[in-house]
Amino acid sequence: MLTHIDKQGNPSMVDVTEKQVTRRTATARSVVVLPDEVLQHLVNGDLMSKKGPVFQTAVIAGIMAAKKTGELIPLCHPLGMDNCSITIQVNQQQEIVIDCTASITAKTGIEMEALVGASIAALTIYDMCKAMSHDILIKETKLMEKTGGKHDFKRA
Amino acid sequence: MLTHIDKQGNPSMVDVTEKQVTRRTATARSVVVLPDEVLQHLVNGDLMSKKGPVFQTAVIAGIMAAKKTGELIPLCHPLGMDNCSITIQVNQQQEIVIDCTASITAKTGIEMEALVGASIAALTIYDMCKAMSHDILIKETKLMEKTGGKHDFKRA
Amino acid sequence: MLTHIDKQGNPSMVDVTEKQVTRRTATARSVVVLPDEVLQHLVNGDLMSKKGPVFQTAVIAGIMAAKKTGELIPLCHPLGMDNCSITIQVNQQQEIVIDCTASITAKTGIEMEALVGASIAALTIYDMCKAMSHDILIKETKLMEKTGGKHDFKRA
Amino acid sequence: MLTHIDKQGNPSMVDVTEKQVTRRTATARSVVVLPDEVLQHLVNGDLMSKKGPVFQTAVIAGIMAAKKTGELIPLCHPLGMDNCSITIQVNQQQEIVIDCTASITAKTGIEMEALVGASIAALTIYDMCKAMSHDILIKETKLMEKTGGKHDFKRA
Amino acid sequence: MLTHIDKQGNPSMVDVTEKQVTRRTATARSVVVLPDEVLQHLVNGDLMSKKGPVFQTAVIAGIMAAKKTGELIPLCHPLGMDNCSITIQVNQQQEIVIDCTASITAKTGIEMEALVGASIAALTIYDMCKAMSHDILIKETKLMEKTGGKHDFKRA
Amino acid sequence: MLTHIDKQGNPSMVDVTEKQVTRRTATARSVVVLPDEVLQHLVNGDLMSKKGPVFQTAVIAGIMAAKKTGELIPLCHPLGMDNCSITIQVNQQQEIVIDCTASITAKTGIEMEALVGASIAALTIYDMCKAMSHDILIKETKLMEKTGGKHDFKRA
Asked: Any idea which UniProt keywords this protein has (chains A, B, C, D, E, F) (predicted)?
């Protein structure tokens, strides 16, 4: 069943009144593929220092966007957050891997916050590199893990 | 060169004072892959009528998010918009294809608006389907085309 | 006494520190009167299917605005929400009746959220119909019921 | 025709690319009816001085909300504003009459801004008086006049 | 140690999962120095009545901004608020003294909310007086007191 | 005259309909004084690299806040921006000097944007250092220069 559609077919929030307050966490990932020449600029700047401005700007943008999730996703509950952190790494295929982990003590989960944080961090990298090339691909965005709700989830 | 980094290595906006006001358009795409059983629910509801609530909610969320691009992407210029539209279709591989087209008459391009619109529409579909499964993948997000700036772009 | 005015005559929030956390609900209503020819378009489209785009867009806009209440009404407390739902019906006088119900478990009530949700849903209907006529009237907006605070309220 | 619905029945913005930049104005009105005992408090405070805090808070809230119109109404264009002013008076029936006038030099009209400004000013008065009574009615909200678009409008 | 920097040197929120929910308060102050001729206008208008529009507008702007703290300061937690009040006085040196006090029952403190509230109130006074002179100085902004966290603080 | 107060003593925007579109710039400064032990941490981290995370986070927060000026300052016009940049330096008195420069081609000036950008950058530094000490002072915030309006201004 689509939980966000009411009996008349209209969109609606999910009533969480009776749900239990538990500690909940979620981790989401976005992967960005840059053309070689763009990646080279980042490697010579950002990656070596691990605190160059592109990745740091993306980290901040992602955290700030995660806090806005309830404003962006129409039927999400407005939530606080106990924590939100984003790490950005380059994997062996030279892809940029963004992981956003969020946690909260609340009646409802925080996976949309993690997904929004990872997505906006990826789009911020896009924005800061696009003057060099538009051949940039946000290759995938997905939930990696969640805990604390009715069912835990861990991507195989 | 990374245009959003100033000489001291700090993040900065790109000065558009001297740029010309032209009509600019951009189209971006996000592709969402749902597990079969979730897709079936959508097909029996949303897809047949082409105006069921999941896709319409996603369209509205995407348009509203596109208008917030300057607030989400740290170094984007705050812009108006002449138009923004989102279409959602299911392709032959049973993937959900979201296309967001935005246009403006301004000094700077609107590709980030199109990318944010497509991304948040995709995340809204995720949000509305996630009670059935978290095995959902936003398979890719990318720019398809832009016109009106220094260089036009059209993905091959 | 005007609770939002302090002893010096300045606007101020109401201190809820000592209030009890209880479950609180509120329902508000806005009624929109459209000229006949506009209503006819809606009836032939939206109303029959009960999920046409005008009413669904209004439902989503209202829910999203209800979440922004603390940002719009200067002295409202910033609140989460356990639930928010909006129904739109046409009554026997051919008026569009929008009911917004919100609930929360908190120290303070949620009637402003319900009123903002109903009002913005009404204004969204206005916006989507105004190309046909500006002879549209939001005939009334009022609280129908509230529970969970010091005094329950139910409109006679 | 419903201009905000595309050919597939999806909600969409109206493309204003080809529209002319003209000076446009709009005035909207909301009328609030308070129970006698509440009105008395306002008369003895706010109304006599004409700058008491309830009405001034409502004026500010309305202006700030008018600036957020593009964020609240899903298919509104994001716009600047050349001016926005709100007046609040008590008419002979002892009703509170809120008039919001907005103007802009742009491709599209500003009537939704005026309507949002008047509505949120009315809801702010509601919020500041509701501790005394919930028997408050926002009796009507409507456009009074608009100029500068394809068709001027003036309510009879 | 800089608590907002993680081990890799990236900005991050502080994890408050394990912190205790306590009642927390904070008071911050901004001091504005206006040129004599501007101050005179205020004194003859605002100060005597104690509810003139400049100071009241500043009070409202400050309270509304305090509610937006989590949106403005990148690594602040999104928080509710039990109360927020702002007082504005003129001291013996003819300086405008703005005190913002905020309180919450939560896992983390509310001093940034108080500081943002005082700062935006000060900038609002600036905005409303700047047509007369730009020789305006926000002389200082600082925390005066906080209670309820690990360490109380009171400025000597 | 207080330009933001109308004839009835109510707050109002300034009507810019008849003003000319010109290129306008503004630079504002905030100065932050940190206790020695906090400054030492920054010097050993941020200052030497000139791109350490505290200052970069502050730069991004300031730019993003400058874009929100119309939302924070009640009677400011909502504006775009052609450019916004923030530099942070340590002067000979070991004070942190934040300069925010904004520019626009519009009917009204951009000094509030520069002031908001500098202020929020200063408060972000405060937020990231406050775990070490609350003995932090935002020593002053002021306009340094503006061009393009009726009168240019340059602080002596």
From this structure: Lyase, Molybdenum cofactor biosynthesis
**B81 lies in some domain:** yes
How many percent of chain B have pLDDT more than 70? 89
Number of structural domains in chain D: 1
SS3 D99: strand
How is residue A65 written in tokens? 């966007």
The conformation of residue B1, written as its DSSP 8-state character, comes to -
Report helix angle C53-66 to C111-129, nearest 10.
150
In three-state secondary structure terms, F153 is: strand
Question: Is position B25 within any domain?
Answer: no
Q: Judge residue F9's burial from the number of C-beta atoms within 10 Å of its C-beta, 0-12 exposed, 13-18 middle, 19 or more buried.
A: middle
| pLDDT tens digit sequence for D33-69 | 999 888 887 776 655 444 458 888 999 999 999 999 9
Annotation says E127 is catalytic: yes
**Chain D residues touching residue C43 (CB < 8 angstroms):** none
B57 within some domain: yes
A131 is a domain residue: yes
- C68 — contact with chain A (CB < 8 Å)? yes
Name the residue range of residue C46's domain.
Answer: 22-148
Q: Identify the helix (H) or strand (E) that includes residue D135.
A: none
Over residues E59-88, the pLDDT tens digits come to 999 999 999 999 999 999 998 899 999 999
pLDDT class of F53 with cuts at 50, 70, 90? confident
Most E-contacting residue of D51, D120, D128 (CB-CB within 10 A), to test interface: D51
Partner-chain contact C124 D74, CB within 8 Å: yes
Q: List the chains bordering chain A where 3 or more Cβ pairs fall under 8 Å.
A: B, C, E, F
Q: Cα Rg for chain E, rounded, in angstroms? A: 17
For residue A112, the chain B residues in CB contact (below 8 A) are 123, 126-127, 130
Q: Does C57 touch chain B (CB under 8 A)?
A: yes
Q: How many CB atoms lie within 10 A of CB A97?
A: 16
**CATH classification of the domain holding C26:** 3.30.70.640
Do D10 and B81 count as a contact with CB atoms less than 8 A apart? no
- Of residues E9, E13, E71, nearest to A85 (C-beta): E13
In angstroms, the CA E129 to CA E125 distance is 6
In one-letter notation, the amino acid at residue F74 is: P
Mean per-residue pLDDT pooled into runs of 10, chain D (156 residues): 66 89 96 90 61 82 97 93 93 94 94 98 94 92 95 90
Q: Is the confidence at residue E134, as pLDDT, over 80? A: yes
Residue B93 three-state SS: coil
**CA pair distance F61, F57, nearest whole angstrom:** 6
* Inter-CA distances, F76 with C23, C139, E105, F113, F131, Å: 39, 32, 33, 9, 34
CA dihedral E130, E136, E139, E143 (to 10 degrees): -10
Gap between the Cα atoms of A78 and A71, Å rounded: 7
Cβ(B26)–Cβ(B109) below 8 Å: yes
* Poorest-pLDDT segment among B81-85, C46-50, E150-154, F98-102: C46-50
CA distance linking residue B142 with residue F76, whole number of Å: 36
Q: Residues A41, A44, A45, A50: what is their CA dihedral angle, to the nearest 10 degrees?
A: 120
The interface pTM score, or ipTM, of the predicted complex is: 0.95
Of C12, C17, C107, the CB nearest to E85: C12
